[in-house]
Structures
1.
Amino acid sequence: MAPGLIALCAALICAVAAGVLLRYRNGRMRSVRAAPVPFRPDAVRSGDQADGATTAVPEARRLTSADLGRPLGEQATLIQFSSAFCAPCRATRRVLAEVAGMVDGVAHVEIDAESRLELVRRLGVLKTPTVFVTDSAGRIVKRASGQPRKPDVLAALGEAISINPIGKDASDISVRPA
Amino acid sequence: MEIDPRGPRFGALITMVMFAVVLITGSVWVLAFQALCFAVGTFLGLTRSPYGMIYRFLVRPRLGPPGELEAEAPPRFAQAVGLVISIIGIVGYGVGLTPLGMAAAAAGLVAAVLNGVFGLCLGCEMYLAIRRTWPGLAGADRN
């Protein structure tokens, strides 16, 4: 078999394999491996007050209201890193805004990656859009690289809200029909 | 400037075929033509590149309007990346370093398949990564 033909077949196989894998991973919500956090019911309140209790959570897995420049959501926060020249960022903004509107106490924050490079490096943001779902204390519960699907965002939100036992129980969560 | 995002993908499908032909035939001339197409796309813009013209006049009229537009800069940078890869291939085939030529054509083929078939533009991602790593180099604003 001519070497060119072999190279062609090899390249096609690699390309298709890479394409399928990257498409599968794009926008998929994945869990952030949680560092063990000692349970301190007296100290854990909102993110910016709890620095003492949350030092066990690495900076790379937590976002504070100081980072965001605005308060965290009462129940959870959806954080989106966007950039210029990013069509999926627009679509992601729509999806997250819709979901934030459906569930009480969920904030939607959009960050321009190019103007917050220190955050980009700290959190390992490699492309835009990248979406982080945090609980009420700013701990990152799920992240997605690429535009996430609405059901996946809702599922991640459910996890973020149920994880933090402080102050709210499941009956407090109200979801307005879309 | 904003363009129909399906245009570059169509161009990538033709590019895919071209690189495949290069690999099968080892023809420097086919590769040179592909390099020329990349050069036009890079320096004169995507709408004026040969494949872009084919898309505009033959394909697009048969499709509906695009759902969304995309910025031209990232795919145009991707054309420049393709141009560099093609030049490497031309050098490889030209001086008799066929493995180098084939490696370059294979790399171009992989990128073209990812773009045309899967909609993943590697050159675009490189452009955005450069903007993040070296703000100001590719026209990014520092806040």
Note: Chain B has a mean pLDDT of 92.
2.
Amino acid sequence: MNPLLKACLSVYRRLARAYPHEFQLVYGEELELTGEDALPEIWKRHGIWGILRFLGDIALRLPVEYLSELRHDTAFALRTLLKSRGFTLAAVLSLGIGIGLCSAFFTQVDALLFRPLPGVPDVAELVAVQEPVSYPYFERVRDRHDIVSGAAALLAPVPFSVALNSARPQRIFGQLVSPGYFATLRIEPSIGRLFDPQTEQPGNSPVVVLSERYWRTHMNADPRVVGSTIRLNGKLAQIVGIGPKDFLGVWPVTPADLFVPITVGGAVAPELTEESPNFRVIMRLADGVTFTSAQAALDTLRRTADDKKPDDKRPKEGRQISLISAGGVIAMTPEQRASTLAVTFVLGGLILALVSTNLAGLLVARGSERAKEIAVRVAMGASRFRLMRQLLTESTLLSLAGGAIGVLCGQAILIGITALAVAADSGVTPPQELDYSLNLTTLLFTTAIAIAAGFAFGLLPALAATRGDVAGTLKLSSNGASRIYRRFGLRNLLVAGQVGLSLTVVLITGFIVIGYQKFAGIDPGFEPRDLVLFQIDPLHDGYTSAALVDRLPERLARLSAVRGVTLAASSPLADYVATPNVRVTADQEMVGVVRQGIGAAYFSTLGIPLVGGREFTEHEGAEPIPAILNQTAVRDLFGPASPVGQALRDASGKQYTVIGVARDSRSAYLMAKPAATMYVPLSVGAAGASIIVRGVPGQDTMAAIRDDVARFDPNLTLINPRTMDRQLAQMNTLIQGGSAFYAGLGFFSLILASVGLAGVTACAVVRRRKEIGIRMALGARRLQVLALVLKEGAALVIAGAILGFAGEWAASRIMAGTMSELARLTDTARSNPLLSIGAPLLLVAITMAACYIPARRSTRIDPVTALREE
Amino acid sequence: MPKTEQRAAPPLRTNWFHILLSLSGEEQHGYGIMQEVLERTNGQVRLWPASLYGALKQLIEEGFIEESNKRPAPDQDDARRRYYKLTRAGRRALEQEIVRLEDLVKAIHHKRHQEA
């Protein structure tokens, strides 16, 4: 035989030996023999093409044979899974929920961090300055064509009062932008034109650009709106164009529907009249300029600017300018990005690990049940590899089914979260929107983790199941091996780990839930019934002074449906967390307080009693500023002494005099105790004021107010009119929703752990039937047998509990490092003995109950039957 | 043959048909089947080894062929070779296919006759 044929034959033999083991057992030898016989004749008749065809034939049939085995494996796996419907259902559901949660987390992270800015080309090139800067600095940057090919400054988000035609004014959020904004972004209008540095000059009549979304939803996409006029903050402005599709400004997590050039000046946009408004700057770097060199150049620019202003208090050493990428939906520093990813992966990983270990435990238990079946198959010629493929096919089928449910589950969770956010939206603060739509990345990610989970929880049990000693297994009783019980076997490790993970999840979620609940539903300190609130923003409505604000409460107080009216800078319970915003002293140390501007009759309208002094009246002196303190502030500043008549000074030197003391009430929602608060007479600035009205019970106070205001001044926008009851309900919805989610999570992991433990104990009982039968025949009482079986479970639970505490400690450290809110919640909750001791006790109780039910079967074993069994 | 069975059978794969036809006379081993088909079709149909054994495996699974115990005289025998023979089901399937092909040829002749 010539060398070519010899080589060909050796390749052929190699391929033949690569066939599946079972195929080889039956046909292997023949295949080789026939090949040897046929080759010379093929060579003679067909030459080189024949050889190629010869090898190609076996090379192609090889994967076909494997695929055929896979088909058989899959069919067999399906039949097996359908036979034990309970197990399959439990497995698929728990996988579905676990994968769904991970998928939801991932989609959130993806929506926040990885989706590109919509509607803008070449987003990867966009960078932004992390800190806000002054406009002159921005102009210097813009003119440096060696660093940037285009730059723009913007203020965002900015509320605008917009009235179309003669409709009532409404609040829309938008951006104030420099004229080069759209050119820097390189976007084109849908219709009309966009801003242009040549056209937009100070002194021109005001123009606006609307978003395509607003144009579609509020103006029917009517092309005639271009050129028409609207009232913007009370002044007339012309619509010159509509933005491109999907574009909602940079950083559209707070979407912008309106764009106004800053050349309109402070008359139209009150934000521009503030002392030194801080602008965000976005830019495209010039060709060949790297991120780091741009950062260094801008830094130098900043320092030379500083040198010209020696009295500026900003620090001059070190880097002041940081650049961040601006191509996403939110402005985030790399550190923020990293911490968001870290939290998500920790939580997601925990959940997936929990579900996987649970399933692995169940599969191991099931594997030992099938020991005899497996032994028989090995005896009949199946290779270990083949058996493992079979078992892995089963677990992969389970996980793919779980993955499919997981995708649906994940979407459902996200729909729920979005609905919650909508319910909690007040229309006062800019709304936050994220695009959670299902996309290919999410699907791929979910499928990948499903398959990975399938392998993870399938591999170990498959290895364990196929390891067995064939002859030994076949000889033993049909109820399985009564091997010496291995204390630290694989199965026990898995179960202990599972219990531990469950405890970790239960503890963490329990802390969060208790933390929330503690803060919710506490007495706010005032009377919330029949209270109506709304906000007004006279400067944005076009009023040049705040004189209106003085007249309105008077008018409203005269309505028959109204018992009392007052003003405040912000409505009570407006924030979730109130932070001190000013430091004052009574000639000792500086104390941080929350300074809140209020109108006359505030406390009487809200129903907060005064414990000393008096309320503000309509006409208060200007210097020193009269102040009312709450009890906490009095304690912090004056101790037990009475503060009425005393003087206070703040960090900027303003003088106050205390005229009254009010009882503590909550200034924010999530504070465990009221913050030290100092009330001063309200001065209405660009942000407007809240009007709080105590209505007459039984009357429609809201309608009466609306009618009156419409008659009084139709141009005044009533922003977010609501009752206090509804606001509390809204806040509660968010809190309850969050609590429900975390409680559900904890509950879910507890169920998983219990199911796992029950399964393992049940298998243990079955396994030890003979042993138990012997013991009972020798006189063991039922209770003793029960104790014997439960001892196993108990040891695992205790080991798991220790792991659980350790895990919780570690996980909260990681998460609290990035989220101080969470740290506060967990610290407060941890000091609650109810949870720290109660949760582990609960876990132990539930898991022991889970063991007890199958263990009870052990006491019903009839020793005679057990001993007789073969 | 009952008419219902005739109508129900789907056409047999070409490879399978040739293998069954080959075994219709006497038992054969794999290489023998290969050679017989080659000769019978004048070199037009060659069953390559891997495809052959794949088909044999499938035919056994379908129940059309089975391993035969009859072996030739020991001096002519190679212990490594397995011999195959038709089962009753296989014979039936083969006959159904033959009838189907014959019907096809009849239809072609009829058509040609009409056009002539």
Note: The radius of gyration of chain A is 37 Å.
